[in-house]
């Protein structure tokens, strides 16, 4: 994809989503200012749009070849490998994190300012997605051993609790920190282009059930959970296929429609009725 086209489409999507948010009943102060500042600062971030390829429009998904260096990938793994815990999922009703056989990997979160390398990666993700750093959760490092997987799921929420923390997840950036000998593909079972992708025996059976992306160290996958009108995209269903040989390391960045660092109720402008006749 031409780099100018990618930048134009990214801006169109972002501005379209902002329009829907800013015309809603509740305003989120600082959101537009954060985006405008990001657009001004984007040129200073280490970001090369010529490495970006659009792989799907339904859902919207893009690959960035060589998003990280080998050294950055290894650094993230070294930060995480001694602090891994069993991965959890969000309960659809309570919103609480619970263990589930749906997701069998292990992982941990890195502080946004943990060191200069992590901070630089955070800035690069914001530059690529055109979404403010404050809208993102901390980067989660994930490790998959033989047979481990994450069954198809959505990144947006079904419970009210998590939606209060920054709203829906609008986009996900998944960076592959290692090669995988076999398996471990990211699969989109309902992608419209799934039947247009030829697959031979080098693909796992899981990957053959949709459009799939092979893990390639340094590459990053960006996909959007919301449509330009800010509604959820049902074609965004995705999963991590079981690792059949070797191991898989990845870094996941979930990005919300508003600040994840400022609770929703604090972001709403307070309105006080001073008239004595008001209850």
The tally of strands reads 16
Radius of gyration: 19 Å
Number of helices: 6
Report on the biggest sheet: 8 strands, antiparallel
By CATH, the topology is Jelly Rolls
The CATH top-level class label: Mainly Beta
Cofactor: L-ascorbate
Catalytic activity: L-prolyl-[collagen] + 2-oxoglutarate + O2 = trans-4-hydroxy-L-prolyl-[collagen] + succinate + CO2
Protein name: procollagen-proline 4-dioxygenase
Pfam family, one: 2OG-FeII_Oxy_3
Structure description:
This protein is α+β, with helices and mostly antiparallel strands and 279 residues long. It has a single domain, classed as Jelly Rolls. Helix content is 23%, strand content 24%. The chain has 6 helices and 16 strands. The protein has helices spanning 3-22, 31-41, 70-80, 116-129, 160-163, 264-267, and strands spanning 52-57, 60-64, 85-86, 89-90, 97-98, 106-110, 139-144, 150-153, 169-176, 182-183, 186-188, 211-213, 220-224, 238-240, 243-245, 248-256. 35% of the residues are buried.
Helix-strand layout with pairing:
Blueprint: H1 3-22, H2 31-41, E1 52-57, E2 60-64, H3 70-80, E3 85-86, E4 89-90, E5 97-98, E6 106-110, H4 116-129, E7 139-144, E8 150-153, H5 160-163, E9 169-176, E10 182-183, E11 186-188, E12 211-213, E13 220-224, E14 238-240, E15 243-245, E16 248-256, H6 264-267
Antiparallel strand pairs: 1-2, 2-13, 3-6, 4-5, 6-7, 7-16, 8-14, 9-13, 9-16, 10-15, 11-12, 11-14
